[in-house]
């Protein structure tokens, strides 16, 4: 369910972005429509002006045609008049010789000419000169009007050309503006897409970061709790080392240790199965951007397995509590044996009154443990059977102080065994850092081996009668197998049995202390301390730093993958 909320947020953000982009497109379309209407109005105005100019030009052409026709008629009349005048002049020149031949009629002609000297020629000249003057005047007027009309026509043609140029310029500007706006719209759409993709990537990164931070906090809390529990276990282990020094208790502890090792092996197998499943889920998380549903199902499976592992851990804790009860019963037996031994006097009391009464010689060392049976046994059933048998045999009550010390010692021992199983990294890609994973596995195996070696060293140190610091301080190799460890334990048991057989007065507590609540550490107590020091150093902040580095590398790889996806979509 927690993965549905980011999906809803992403869908809401996508819807908002789509609505905002649609609103912006509507606004830009309205602006473009307004500009288109303005350009159409300008074009209509220019068309009207050009149509008016064409009409005026047509009128001027009509007037020019009329004036040209009038001029042609006037020129034709003028040519006709000049021809008539020339004809009359010839006729007059032809008449003059006839006048000299007939002088009797000359006086009459002269009288007629004197009486009306301008009777004949005057009308002819007036008839010829009046149309010429009129035609010339008309021609002049027509020429002036034609010149004026030509000038107006030239001006109007220039205006038409200017208007055409302006129209072309406006068209070019309009085309440029439309292209620029389309380019801006494309850029804006691309930027909006990139912003939406970046928002999605940022949401995914924030979700992953929150998940990783929560897991880191949980791991840190678990580690701190485990360290505190391990420290308590160490304290209890030291206390139980000071008190348990009998062969029977040793045998019971060996059996308990074998059962604990079986439980730890079972827990290790469970942890390996859980880790393999987590590695598979981590490998599938690399494709979480494309298949979120698969990741959800795998997470549910991992949570179920985790609950099963926790249930198994609870069962192991119950077995630990059963072991604690057995240890209490064994300590009751020890107390009874001490009471029996205090009845018999000992020579060591006369020499040193502060020493406690010596116990009877310990029994011979137990035989080597039988080989592990092939049949699978339930440790819980065995513990319940032992518990029933122990309740039938035990009849004395123990004080509260010793009971608390023993329970703390057993809890500390079990926690140290559990501490050998180191915490595992969660959601780690299998191919991210193979070297770190191998180192982490080696470290966990070494931690488990170191815990087992510490317990075995504690058991060996409890059986030693004298302070043999040279052998107790020898550190075991962490890469030794279980068969070799069993061989070493058998050899030491034989050596301890020989030493107990040769020693005249073995004392279970060579360093007595009058205060039983604060006993001194045995000589062999240095072994677990020396062996626990590297374990404590290994459980420092190095795994936490390594996990932080791995988480950082995961985030960087996922961001790079998202960026590559964005560039591929572009």
UniProtKB/TrEMBL annotation:
UniProt keyword Repressor, yes or no: no
Bias category Pro residues: which stretches?
Answer: 354-373, 505-517
Report biased composition (Basic and acidic residues) as residue ranges: 1-12, 438-451
Listed A to Z, the keywords are: Coiled coil
Asked whether the keyword Acyltransferase is assigned, the reply is no
Q: Which residues does the annotated region (Disordered) include? A: 1-26, 337-408, 421-570
Segments of skewed composition (Acidic residues): 13-26
What this protein is called in its record is Shootin-1
